[in-house]
Amino acid sequence: MTDSEEKQPTRPPQADKPGETPAAPSGAAPEKPQAGGEEKPAAPAPPAPAKPATPAAPAASGAVPPKPPAPGAPAAAKPAGPPPPPKEPPLKPAPLENDLVKRYKARFGGAILEAWLDRKQAILVTTPDRLLEIAQYTRDEEKFDYLVDLTAVDWPKREKRFDLVLILYSFPKNERLRIKVLLADGEPVSSVESVWPTANWLEREIYDMFGIVFEGHSNLKRLLLPEEWQGYPLRKDYDILQQDEDWIRENLGIESGQ
Amino acid sequence: MLNEAIFYFFATLAIISSILVVTRRNAVQSAIFLVTALLATAGIFLNLNAEFLFIVQVILYAGGIMVLFVFVIMLVNLDVALHQVQFNRQWFVALIISAVLAAQVVAALLVSRGTLYAVAPASPETLEPNTERVAFSLFHTYMLPFEIASILLLVAMVGAVVMAKKRV
Amino acid sequence: MSDAFDNFLPGGKANVETTVLGADEIILNMGPQHPSTHGVLRVKLRLDGEKVVGSECVIGYLHRGVEKIAEHRSYQQFAPYVDRMDYVAAVSNGLGYCEAVEKLMGVEAPPRARVIRTILTELQRIASHLFWLGTHALDIGALTPLFYCLREREEILKIFEKYCGARLTTHAFRIGGLQYEAYDELEKDTERFCRGFDKRVDEYEALLTENRIWVGRTKGIGILNAADAIAMGVTGPVLRASGVQWDIRKAMPYAAYDQYEFSIPTGKNGDTYDRYLVRLEEMRQSRKICLQAIENIPSGPILGKVGKVLKPPPGEVYHAIEAPKGELGYYIVSDGTTQPYRVRIRPPSLVNLEALDQMIRGHLVADVVAVIGTLDIVLGEVDR
Amino acid sequence: MDLHALLPFLFPVLFALVIVAVLPLIAGYIVLVERKVMADMQVRLGPMRVGPHGLLQPIADAVKLLLKEDIIPESADKLVFWGAPLISVTAAMLALAALPIGPFFQIADLNIGMLFILGISSLGIFGIVLGGWASNSHYSLMGALRSAAQLVSYETSAGMAIVGALLLAGTLSTRGIVQAQADDGVWFIFAAPVGFFIYLVASIAETNRAPFDMPEAESELVAGYMTEYSGFRWALYFLAEYTNMVVVASIAATLFLGGWMRPFANTRVFNVLDYFPLLLMLWIAGYCWRRTPKQPVFVQKVFMAAVGVLCLILAAVITLPVIAPQGSLLAAAKPGIHGAFWFLFKVGAYIYVFMWLRFTFPRYRFDQLMRLGWQFLVPLSIANVMGIAIGLTLHRQLGWPAVPALLLGIALTLGAAWYLISVGEKHEPAIVGEEGEGAADA
Q1: Distance from the C9 Cα atom to the nearest Cα atom in chain B, whole angstroms
Q2: Is the ipTM of this complex over 0.95?
């Protein structure tokens, strides 16, 4: 806990850039990349402006392994995730390069690390430092007005161990978008509560479960677990037995029989 | 005999409760004893065959006013009162006033010694249609004063409403 | 805080320094043991008299760490757990999970399975709404609708029982299709229920819709306008009552919803009364879907091509369905092993509950109860 | 001391003892009836386990309540906490003293009868308020405050509604009121229907029953002023509540429903109605016997049959005076027995309406309740008194025939009601909108 709380300077975007080079076979062209990903039926919304873009992958974002590569240290990225099995092509995450991504890249440049399509669902990877701007832009310009969910995934062996995942939906476009923010342990990230008020509790839950600290959150305390809880349960290295033994030793003064 | 026993019972109850009203620190308990005192007085009225007065005492004082009292007491902060000095030290003033009052009562008793029992108490029968008699006096004999009084009350009530309303 | 109030109670801690005038603000702890917080929700209310000036929800009393459990179970093993989140609508939970994993695996359930899934899910929606209506009416003081609602819900639960042997936590579906083949009279039972159900809804309406007290208690209470509703992320009937015509069944159809005709009821004012009307209409629409679905259940296999051991290729998927309470989403990350690397469940109840504070401000304590009821939360899902 | 001097006290004391002894039982059975009625309206069966058809449920409940631990919260004001339920019960029971259950069965015929009942039953508030305060809990206190406000508000309109009927009767004595209805040949419900309606609403509110059960609104305040009470003390509150129901129903029966009089008491043709009790009892007995074979246990079969027999005995007791020859002792007992039957029947019917309303309506919100009380019922009850007074003046002083005069009075009152409703409807949305905007702003 103490580790995670000490503030680390936000990584300059340049530092991240060289990291994302693990070249994956870019020949696996995305079959039908859409920004929204989801199949679109007759929906109240007009068809999305984001058209399938040419997969002319610029150097900045090659097709990548299933998970975002660990920035800065490609070597460290490997062990966390399993090797990408080159099986059924449609399930394979494919790089995404459509208008939407281009707009993002044009606007935020280095902050957008990469974009890909996984199971026809669009994913955008960013750095934490400009998250608030990106969020603002996403809501106001790209009309992703509904923050469906905000969660995190822990990859303990990666250098930036957390994925902060924003799942967004646009009512006007009937599209979903996922924004991933790569975070190191203890690296503060700005709260998007001001952009989507619903993030209030969702961020509290992430803080509760992962120990990610959101700056500018109005009331950052544990949501589901009691205030005095030790540790962050959804981290991969969380050990309930250890917790139990500690608690018993501390409160009952005996050794746990577990 | 029975009547006297009843009277003394209620009178004692009234006095004890009245003392408790002023000596209790807790305002709610004081209010309870005030209700007891009022009810004891009502009992004395009933014993005197003044049923209407009895029920007016119960409805208005015990049932109406005291409920509002208790209500208000519950709304205000009792905490302050609980810790204030209950009796101040000007006991000599109280003593003088009590003495004067006692002297008055004694004097009145002495002066009227001969005449106090001269008037025989009215027999219960003459009081019988109690309510009707009160009603007759109020709505017939003293019609005008009664109406004036009620208008006065109405004005007071409207005034209170207006004053309270202004704040909102 | 509530000092002024506490102090004056007989056992309150006396504190001479407190010079607060009167009982201006008190803190009322509603729950976790309270008749109308629908489980173990605790709401700390700041009251001015009986008027709510602020509130804070304390949740987590029912937290079981479902998301953590998921990381230590295989994909099939985890399926029964999701039934225990929104235990009033277990079938919907199961549908969402199964479809999410199917999407992750890149398989699809066969048509027959999808239609039966749709029927059961819609029945479950009716059951969930019935339960909501009963308890909501009970909160507002109408005792009787609860029992009428439970009577109808019972019929649905009997259909579930006949289908899969369980009534509440059904675990009715299986990744890739159905757990069980439909029993012989499924269509007949469903039809019998649906035929009679419209009149039952009329019955509830007769008790409540025009009732002056009911209208007085629900109209203008807990208003959430469309912009706020979207900002707060509320979904389901709560969102639709605010006037946003959005239903995942239409927007991004799953199961077999694209084959059926139904409308999405919406409200105007976004108040408790509108939410009540929307849910009633949704029940009627669900009935309509069921009737359409049983007319033509395709024959064929009920299970798609999935192996005994599920090993989805690495990657991630977010799949959401329109659960009775709103958008129920599953975000599943696979690392290529037999166990999910991470399962995130997007519970509609939790997000809807978040809007509670905004909805009850300025209302009275009695309205808090009405608003909690109208949000239709299930604490098993809020806390997971 | 002369025993003769005590003789006048004999019957009242006896009656009082009977009432105090029997009332808890009656209250218990009212609860059972309420549960049964509720179950019937809610497609269920209700209590069925203790005794056949749950007939012994009240006794089981009573035993349970008596044996339960009497929990007193640590920081409660012990003395007040103990005493509060007693105040409620005492007040409720005292009020029964002036009620005539049939022409012979009354503890005291006070010439201030109605006022006495009103005054004494209004003291019951103290039990609620003090109990709520002494419990030292926010829920209890809020229940108590609501209760006090509600009772004070609705007592006003209930009192005014009663005044209307009293004007018609010209006396405060309960016996005199019934007599007046007998003499006029009309129950006051027909002479003052609006007054009856006001009293019905106000009495529901005064007994804290749904849809006006704010003080104990279980979904908001858990149990209101009773939240911290348990066991016997809780039972006392319950007893007080149900006694109060009996009291208000008795008042309504006495004032508006002709007290102990049979319907159409003065019309010979309707003497057939004297056999109504017989039919009722026979029907109940028949039902009992029909259900007897279906009871699972032998003891229950016997019990069920015995209940049927009991009904037959009652039927005999009620019917014998009717068929007995004129001038016999049995015939002389007829007014007493039949009076008691009809009085209790009316009380029962009134209480049934209470239950019916409770299971049909949602609960009012507190501000709505107050608005209804002060902005509708109180003005309406004043209009009612004025309407009746106008009718009576026309009749008694200007010599109009009674029926048109009273009808005019009723019409005036209804006009006032219509006006109040239209005004209320004009204002209500504004208030709701105001609240709504406030919520949206926040």
Answers
A1: 8
A2: no
